[in-house]
């Protein structure tokens, strides 16, 4: 048993739970990555069917040319979500999604004037994606199988 695990167990109110937490640590992280990527891909699936369909909307946010940014938005959500779920190119995929979500935070909070109430889901999504930008994937990923990651 490592010193870190022993120290962590000593700090727990119920030290017996330390083994459970240690055993589920990597699996819970994998589950979060799969769910985050899967839901992002599902959300982007309607956009990938019509990748230029959001051109007018993105131009309304100040992103020109709209067709280019609409295509990028569609790919970031759909393919980025799939890649994130698989743990393939995890950090770049999460970063692309993070940029999209930070724009939606701005859109809801500032442009629409909804404040926190309008942006809270986007803030939560941004935090999840930021986690994977920094952390990358774990051993249950394509990145780990390849043996290389960003």
Task: Furnish the topology, listing elements before pairings.
Blueprint: H1 3-11, H2 17-49, H3 55-60, H4 66-86, H5 90-111, H6 115-135, H7 142-146
Write up this protein.
The protein is mainly alpha-helical and 150 residues long. It has one domain. It is built from 7 helices and no strands. It has helices at residues 3-11, 17-49, 55-60, 66-86, 90-111, 115-135, 142-146. The protein starts with a helix and ends with a helix. This is DoxX family protein. Its main location: membrane.
Low-pLDDT segments: none
Indicate the mean pLDDT.
Answer: 92
Shape: globular
Helix content: over 70%
State the gist of this model.
The chain has helices at 3-11, 17-49, 55-60, 66-86, 90-111, 115-135, 142-146. By secondary structure, the protein is mainly alpha-helical. The model has no long low-confidence stretch (mean pLDDT 92).
Please give a handful of descriptors for the protein shown.
single chain; 150 residues; mainly alpha; globular
